[in-house]
């Protein structure tokens, strides 16, 4: 078996943890498996490097930032190879150049285009554990690139696909994917399995232990993922195309209390209004989450959307600067709201799921401010103080 | 003009120093010159990385050590590019891969074989300052290598040769090469010029501000070096093939108090004895400095040599383990000795130089324990406590 194992920055944060990860990898190696390990930068190293850079240049070029940040994973992989050697096992570390890991040249947000497998296979044939830098790549001109948030997960999945691995294990500080955040919902249970699509919705909702892009890539290449803890031997959660599920038709409940709702009331009901509004916000790099448009007074419409709380002020100021006072009646901002979502294939198959959620919230006395749905997700906006209550009510309603 | 400028770890040890170096480079750039900058790792970063590694594996593989250490210079060059950008000048950082800097595959002690100049020239043509990692290279199989002590100087010289640079400036924390260490010899003066050969002897004697290999390489390719301070605007010392010199026929006096003298007395006077002695020491990685062999009792010989003080115990134990008691009469160790040397072309041209030194030491009341000479150097071993006195006496004798 060829196993790709990915460990995040916390899992390699110090000497003891590095040795712990080394031992886990060696267990698989000694059973006769080929083992490829993907690592992030140690603990807070990436943050420290960013701080160092911004101290010298508040607005550093992305090209040079990627050049700087890639030292982080290189440090991790070299130390891990030393740790495995110390435990008596042959190992070799490879960075993005050495693999090579070809990406687009979008510094700080590159996409993997192609992975050369010759070097990796060659080292595996020599019965070495191969330790590869996550998060980083090289563009056509041999500049370093990085893959953005969650990039190491993406590296692991892409490697698993390129190497035709039998398994891709993503190790995190939680022991799997839960039906809800256990810190908020007492009855939350670990899922044995979840589909790619459900995982994607969970990730988007801020509840994900995996980054979106890595799940998309896994779905595209049919790479079966296992999410598990680097600290325990628990089985973890398998992410795959289809799952067998019992009576609960939904896979989980997600909550995100970092949301602000902005409503532009009394906009002229003419074509292109929505485009103009969101275009100007996009130019200011305001990240829009849920968008709703509803009919207002005759000839008018209201547009509501949510943003992260830190972006609310910028969004409102941008809108007021951009639009003349005749364009709208009022802009309404509520910063203390939260999103609560249910996610599951069941939503696609059975009517009434959304209604069951709304009923549960009604019975819990939670007022719904906005509703948005996708094929496998129902999201409601509630007051921030009601979030946990709403999550528990929804969780219980679906007997998760 | 194409100028290669090399700055050591102290010169880029923190934000202020990085910005200071950036400004100096920009001065040359703004005069219309092409500027290539070679950097070492920041301050104590290399030492910190070595410590981190040895904590995980007391005997780390050299391949992985080089993989780890190369992150040091990469950090420096990325931050320097950001600093230059912050000062409004286009700059790009390149590591050994990106250049590319081809070396042998002797990890931790590689030699530069060939430098590709396309990428560097291309960036220069775009009027960017090009900042390159010193100390590191890549072998034929794309593994990282490092060049050993003083490696960044070698990188700078090799780049200057490959790029056909008009000037190669080595910036250090002293403002040039002195006739003696100014902390020890009050009348020490900065040299305007020194030959490669003299510089090589000075380097070997521990008084060098430049590493041997870089001077050898400069001599081989006729690269004229300038040694100067990164903190002042002083002119520095030029290192080249021939120099015009006044009445002083020697260029300097060097002292090294980290020496121990070991004498093996009464060895059998048969062929191969010296070989066996030094072979067994080499295997234990004991670095031998000066070797003297003299005739002892009839049929016997004495061999004396110097080592660094920290190696003295290992050397003696190795010899005692290796040789049977019949092989020699005694082993004599003196750990508190020092080397004092005079270096200069004059020694080759004029007789009596050595004698003048011995006379000066005699008059200063310094007892000479050993003497060793090369074409342009005379070295004496004296008691450690006499070193500074001996250096001053020699310095005065030659009216430096």
Folded structure, characterized:
- The structure is a homodimer of 400-residue chains.
- The first copy, chain A, has 400 residues and is of the alpha/beta class.
- The first copy, chain A, has a domain of 172 residues: Acetylglutamate kinase-like (Carbamate kinase, 3-Layer(aba) Sandwich), CATH 3.40.1160.
- Helix content of chain A is 36%, strand content 28%.
- Chain A has 13 helices and 18 strands.
- An eight-stranded mixed sheet of chain A has the order 3-6-2-1-9-11-12-10, sandwiched between helices.
- The longest helix of chain A has 25 residues.
- The two termini of chain A are 34 Å apart.
- In chain A, 48% of the residues are buried.
- At the A-B interface, α1, α2 and α3 of A face α1, α2 and α3 of B.
CATH architecture name of the domain at 2-173 in chain A: 3-Layer(aba) Sandwich
Helix-strand makeup class of chain A: alpha/beta
Biggest sheet architecture of chain A: 8 strands, mixed
CATH homolog superfamily of the domain at 2-173 in chain A: Acetylglutamate kinase-like
Largest interface: A-B, 37 and 37 residues
Distance between the termini of chain A: 34 Å
Radius of gyration of chain A from CA coordinates: 23 Å
Amount of helix of chain A: 25-40%
Instruction: List the uncertain runs of chain A.
Output: none
The name CATH uses for the topology of the domain at 2-173 in chain A is Carbamate kinase
CATH class call of the domain at 2-173 in chain A: Alpha Beta
